Amino acid sequence: MKTVIENVTIKAVNSWLPKTRIEMTSFNSLYGVEEVNSIIKATGVERIRVADNDMTSSDMCVKAAEALFEQEQFDCSQIDGLVFVSQTTDWLLPATSISIQDRLGLSKDTVCIDIHYGCSGYIYGIFQAAAWIACGACKNVLVLAGDTTSRMINPNDKSLRMVFGDCGTATIVSKGEGKMGFQINSDGSGSDRLIVPAGGFRTPVSESTSILEWDADKNGRTQNDLFMDGMAIFNFAITKVHKQVNALIEDMAWNKEDVGFYGLHQANEFMVNYVRKKLKIEAELAPVNVKNYGNTGPATLPLLLSDLCSEPHQYNLQKSILTGFGVGLSWGSIATDLSETKFYSPINK
């Protein structure tokens, strides 16, 4: 799918981080110093944030939204659309976005939807918001993206425990003078490459799905836990993402040399840099911030923006690319002007 949507703009972005920091070196006694140092070197992740047991993704996103309304002096009654992007929703039903509408005191005329996506989810959330605005249904859509991925990881799985963190974000998408180019692709043949095998209606949680098993790299998990085929995801990303980005730039009739910012999904430092090299762009154009946060799923892109773009004139954002890729398998990109967007430094930074 590819399209260009006119008269829509990303107005403001904010993020909220849980206060609990976990240093990767704290796993030295559990996994061994050599193993921990090897993982840190490979991923670039030195610490992550983890939500308290009683805090959900929606809690973090609500905090980000409330702060964003205050920072922007934005009247929440102007919000007429709400998109909640998360793989860790509050319940199987009802939709978490419906409860958030009430918690934020939004109008009962607000249209609400949950999008159950991970790494590419922010792209889907912005696309849904832009589509609502383009068809005249909405003027201001609140896009909330966040996950408590740490809850899905088995404590014995060092390969994931030392990579994924938790975060909640809030973005206001509004009717405006800008335009957004989108490209979104899907390949369900790779759905088993990044998955929680049990817990849905196809394979309910049971005694058999709760058996701890160990892989060849001495990572332990049950079928109720998150599984990732790291090499398959890596091969997918380095094969597909740069082609989509280059095609989007061509569709927008942009000169590649004029693109001043590439926001790439922060899977890990090695993968971000590898994709950047496939794009043949300089390191300063595609920043990496996994060092302090890890991979926060659908929150990585808005967290990257609020973390690194809150200082004015740090990047030339007039021609910007945002790209998410991963679970699904799914990959999507946005081309837009972010030069007038307000970015606020992460709360609890």
Question: How does this structure look, described?
Answer:
With 349 residues, the protein is α/β, with parallel strands linked by helices. The protein contains ten helices and 15 strands. Strands 1, 4, 5, 6, 7, 12, 13, 14 and 15 form a nine-stranded mixed β-sheet that branches. Strands 2-3 form a two-stranded antiparallel sheet. A two-stranded antiparallel ribbon has the order 8-11. The chain is globular. Helix 7 runs parallel beside helix 8 (269-279). 30% of the residues lie in helices and 25% in strands. It folds into two domains: 6-178, Thiolase/Chalcone synthase (Peroxisomal Thiolase, Chain A, domain 1); 184-196 and 224-343, 3-Layer(aba) Sandwich (Peroxisomal Thiolase, Chain A, domain 1).
Main sheet characteristics: 9 strands, mixed
Unreliable stretches (pLDDT < 50, length at least 5) are none
CATH superfamily of the largest domain: Thiolase/Chalcone synthase
* CATH topology (level 3) name of the largest domain: Peroxisomal Thiolase, Chain A, domain 1
Rg, rounded, reads 19 Å
Give the helix level as a range of percent. 25-40%
Q: What share of residues are in beta strands?
A: 15-25%
The number of domains: 2
By CATH reckoning, the class of the largest domain would read Alpha Beta
Query: What is the N-to-C succession of helices and strands?
Result: EEHHEHEHEHEHEEEEEHEHHHEEE
Please state the second-level CATH architecture of the largest domain: 3-Layer(aba) Sandwich
Compute the number of strand runs: 15
